[in-house]
Amino acid sequence: MAMVLIMFGIELIDAAFLPAAFVALLAGLLSFLSPCVLPIVPPYLAYMTGIGVNGLKTGERSAVVPALFFVLGLSTVFILMGIAASAFGRALLQYQDLLSRGSGLVVIILGLHFLHVIRIPFLDSEARLDVDAKGGGAFGAYVLGLAFAFGWTPCIGPQLGMILSLAASGAEAQRGVALLAIYALGLGIPFLLSAIFINRAMGLMNRIKPHLKLIERVMGVLLIAVGLALLTGAFTAFAYWLLENFPALATLG
C-alpha cells in the first residue's frame, strides 16, 4: 500500500485514501467472487489460451500470459473510469459535500439490492459484448479484457459504482486513478492466480460456489457501510484518526 501511495502522490489527510484503498481492494476481490464472474473464469481462461477446459487441466498450454493481458485490458477501462470520476469530482468541487452525500445514498440503495431488500432488475442483467478476437493470443486476451470491463458493468456495477463514488469525492486526479487501479488489482490478481494454479483454482472455485449467495450478502453489507461513511464523512474522520494514532503514515503522502 505504501508503494501505491508513493507512486500516485496521495496525501492521506486530504483524500482519506487508506480506508478507501482497502475498500477498493476488497470490492475487487468480492467482484471476482460474485455469482456472475466466478463461474465464467475457467471458460474465459480456456478461450484466452485457445484450448478447452480439459486442456487447461492437463497443462497443454499455459494461461498465464493471456491472463496477464486480460487483466491489463480490464485495468485500462477501470483506470480511464477513475480519471473520468476524478474530473467529474473536480468540476463539481463546490458541491463536493452534496455529491458525497448523494453518492452515499446511491451506494446504500445498491447495498440493499445485494441484500435482496429491494431489487433493481437492471443489475441482474449482463450487457456482454461479443468480440471477434481469436482465443490463444495476447492481443485477443487484451481485447477480451476491455470487453469484460464494459460488458459485465451491470453485474459488477454496484461494486464499481461504490469505488467511482469514492473517486469522485476527492479533488485529486491521482486519487481516482489509484482507487480504480487498486480495484482492478483486487479483481485481476485472482484471475492471474487462477491461471498460475489452474487445477487448485478450479477445485477451490467448486468449493466456493455453494457460498456465492453469502458472498453477495457480504458485498451488500460492505456497500451499505461505505454508503454510510460517505453520508457522514467517516472516511475523512478515520484518516485523521489514523494519522493521529500512527504518525508515521504522514510520511507516505
From TrEMBL:
One of its GO terms (cellular component) is membrane. Residues 22-231 form the Cytochrome C biogenesis protein transmembrane domain. It comes from the Bacteria. Belongs to the DsbD family. It is a multi-pass membrane protein. Its main location: membrane. The chain crosses the membrane at residues 63-86, 98-118, 138-156, 177-198, 218-243. This is Cytochrome C biogenesis protein transmembrane domain-containing protein. It is found in: Membrane. Pfam families: DsbD_TM. It comes from Paracoccus aminophilus JCM 7686. The keyword tRNA processing does not apply. GO terms for biological process: cytochrome complex assembly. Keywords: Cytochrome c-type biogenesis, Membrane, Transmembrane, Transmembrane helix.
